[in-house]
Amino acid sequence: MNFDHSEKVQSLMQKLSHFMDTEIYPREDEYHSLVMNNTNKWQTPALMNELKAKAKEQGLWNLFLPKEYLPYGAGLNNLEYAPLCEIMGRVLWSSEVFNCSAPDTGNMEVIAKYGSDEHKKTYLEPLLNGEIRSAFAMTEPEVASSDATNIATKIEDKGDHYLINGRKWYTSGAMNENCQILIVMGKTDVKAPRHQQQSQILVPLSTSGVTVVRPMSAMGYLDEPIGHAEVLFENVKVPKANLILGEGRGFEIAQGRLGPGRIHHCMRLIGCAQRALDLTCERVEQRIAFGQPLSKQQSVRESIAQMYCKIEQARLLTLKAADNMDKYGNKVAKNIIAAIKIVAPKMACEVIDEAIQIHGAAGTSQDTVLSATLAYARTIRLADGPDQVHMMQLGKNLVVNKQ
Ligand SMILES: Cc1cc2nc3c(=O)[nH]c(=O)nc-3n(C[C@H](O)[C@H](O)[C@H](O)COP(=O)(O)OP(=O)(O)OC[C@H]3O[C@@H](n4cnc5c(N)ncnc54)[C@H](O)[C@@H]3O)c2cc1C
After folding, report:
1. What's the average model confidence in pLDDT over 283-304?
2. Helices (H), 206-333
3. DSSP letters of 280-305?
4. In this structure, which topology does domain 133-246 adopt according to CATH?
5. Nearest protein Cα to ligand 1, atom 42
6. Best substitution site from 134, 145, 203 to test ligand 1's pocket, by max atoms within 8 Å of Cβ?
7. N or C: which end of the chain has fewer CB within 10 A?
8. DSSP type of residue 5
């Protein structure tokens, strides 16, 4: 394995880092204050559109979409995208600037891979242009959604259309005023074998019978202006052509959805943790306690060393997973994908938590990015599939493989 970055990737990394230095970090406070002081907190501030236009102009756009989707996207493979995604991960809202943010990346991939020409024209193109946003509605309050066979929303065939009834929550992105399209998972045939009951269907948010009930908070954060919505579907009529791929193929799509996008959160989390370490290294030089800078305390140095080791271990595992996905495909790479999904969110939680400790009260405050970043890292231990489900799958695969 050679993890040296190619010249193309090095040049993109340089360009992206320069963009972060000149356009993103200096405007972090401004962005937060615009979001917080907006009369409509689900409206994306104009600053975002300004930054998106600049990023697009500089070719820092749709970097996540791999070669098989050319001419869409930058044609990078997973290993090439990993360091770029890490850099974007340093600021929670910056992936959107480059049209590389969740859940749109996964949704775009689904439509690019499985959508009809009509789906691509109506939804993929505006998504790729960054003109609209999307959401993925699978999880339901009433059922244990870590086991997707439980998903109970009904998608009934009514001859010339489907009728949808159900309740979803934590539909990330659906609060945002630019969100126009939902990919909804539900059952088309309750009598089919368990993994062929579910289907996925495109539902415009403006369809009659779709109600955004309320924003759900995550660790106390509403994550404005994107948000996580509770959404009610009451007798929602959708044309049959909106079904993706075919009835009973929801699991197949879910697997595909988790293609390259499978480890994007891990890549971002490396960036979150690295930023927490960088901020800590600056802070300990400035803060004097008991007559000397914190950086001179042995236990602080040990903490910093441990943070570095944890990040580096997770980064290498992420790169290896990305490399295996590129070389052997996601099916063969499934164990290492599960491994990094177990490792990266927990690592980020530990590193950011330590950074907060070293920052003192400031670490918990709105004056640093640390507490919001910790909340994000913590929720990924659920939102990207609970740790236990990845462990269950990895443990099972390893035992079975030994027989
Ligand atoms: C911030 C945030 C954003 C999200 N965004 C989205 C989104 O955009 N779209 C969407 O559809 N969903 C989204 N989710 C929901 C997320 O995917 C689910 O929370 C997750 O799949 C778990 O489902 P559940 O909450 O129903 O937990 P449950 O299924 O009730 O599971 C609860 C717990 O049970 C334990 N458990 C489950 N299975 C096992 C097992 N096999 N062995 C041992 N223990 C087990 C785990 O500890 C698990 O956390 C989001 C969640 C959060 C917090």
Report:
1. 98
2. 250-257, 264-286, 298-328
3. HHHHHHH-EETTEEGGGSHHHHHHHH
4. Butyryl-CoA Dehydrogenase, subunit A; domain 2 (2.40.110)
5. 388
6. 145
7. C
8. P
392 lines ligand 1 (CB under 6 A): yes
7-101 and 258-402, same CATH topology: no
Nearest CA to ligand 1 atom 50: 383
CATH 3.10.350.10 fits 7-101, yes or no: no
Amino acid 403: pLDDT: 46
Lowest-pLDDT range of 250-259, 271-280, 281-290: 250-259
Question: What's the distance, Cα to Cα, between the start and end of the chain in Å?
Answer: 28
Domain boundaries, the chain: 7-101, 133-246, 258-402
Class level of CATH domain 258-402? mainly alpha
Nearest CA to ligand 1 atom 11: 138
Is the C-beta atom of 389 inside 6 A of ligand 1?
yes
Sign of the CA dihedral with 70 first, then 72, 73, and 79 last:
negative
**Of 169, 166, 179, 164, which is closest to residue 104 (Cα–Cα)?**
179
Segment 174-194, tens digit of pLDDT: 999 999 999 999 999 999 999
